[in-house]
Amino acid sequence: MILTVTLNTALDLTYGVPELVPHASHRVSEMSERPGGKGLNVARVLSALGHRTVVTGFAGGATGAVLRELLADLSPQEPTDPGAGSPDAPHVPEPGTAPAATAPATTAPAPVTDALVTVAGNTRRTIAVVDRATGDTTQLNEPGPLVTADEWAALLGRYEELLAGADAVALCGSLPPGIHVGAYAELVRSARTAGVPVLLDTSGEPLRRGIAARPDLIKPNADELAQLTGSREPMRATRDARRRGAHGVIASLGPDGMLAVTPDGIWQAAPPARVPGNPTGAGDSAVAGLLSGLVEGLSWPDRLRRAVALSTATVLSPTAGDFDRAAYEELLPRVGIEEHAPAAR
Questions:
Q1: Which is the catalytic residue, given 284, 302, 322, 324?
Q2: Helix, strand, coil shares of the chain as percentages rounded to 5?
């Protein structure tokens, strides 16, 4: 089982309009809603890849109730105990026999189990308005609910229980009001104590504090990496971030792919070509690729191929935040890998 933690969940609303004009009234031509927040996006992609996933974090109020109803729709099967193992997980190869990154057989979606903690406040909404004439998206993000000390304590207890059955954990997204800035550092330390590999995907001061707790992986984008290190040169900034405490740093370079600085080596992975489309959720799909590759025992180059192929296929998807499976399977063997050094220092 893979555990994802989304402290600031959201109900994602997307409105499509023929053309977005300032100061004008608009008729919405299409509308969708789904459970959102970075960790829930990661879970949705993991499910599509056949990995059983448990999601925790906070949800509350009428918006939280809708989010949980939509989350239940991702798991038509009766969920099992969230802390149990994952007998139906994809086959993990023996060490040294990691499969090549060829197009995988299509797998049935795996269950996504709701282990969210209920809070008194109302879960936030994020509203994306898509201009169909240009393809541009305008994003409006509400603040999250105020989380109390008792609600945070309940989350910590739930998290400790879930770690016992987790093969890996992803800590994703922003912090809601009321949660202290060192929260992710606390969650990283708990995962390390439990012996569970942990990936941290956040930004700003929560990332700065969290990286000092020595997560196994962080996945900043170029702006987040520059904010952390003060450098916009990818190799220098990525090496610097690793020296600050992370065992491995996977830097998202947008349409240019990813740069990985790890204890085993340094690689850059790039899609075969730049693609047009909506990048919403592309980073979350990359996290799903990295985590699934980790628990399946893939080599670093093959994990990166999967992450870049999923990220690019998300940009190509007609639905923001989902990935185009046909594009993913076509892209996977075509992702380029360049090794920069035999090992990170």
A1: 284
A2: 35, 25, 40
User: What are 162-212's pLDDT values in tens digits?
Assistant: 999 999 999 999 999 999 999 999 999 999 999 999 999 999 999 999 999
pLDDT, one tens digit per residue, over 17-68 is 999 999 999 999 989 899 999 999 999 999 999 999 999 999 999 999 999 9
Residue 168 has φ and ψ, to the nearest 5°, of -165, 160
**pTM for the whole structure:** 0.88
- Our answer to whether residue 284 is catalytic in this structure is yes
Domain assignments of the chain as residue spans, ordered by start:
2-341
In angstroms, rounded to a whole number, what is the distance separating the alpha carbons of residues 223 and 214? 21
Distance CA 125, CA 258 (A): 30
Q: How far apart are CA 280 and CA 314, in angstroms?
A: 8
Residue 38: closest CA among 165, 135, 160, 173: 173
Q: What is the CA radius of gyration of the chain?
A: 19
In three-state secondary structure terms, 114 is strand
Q: What is the CATH number of domain 2-341?
A: 3.40.1190.20
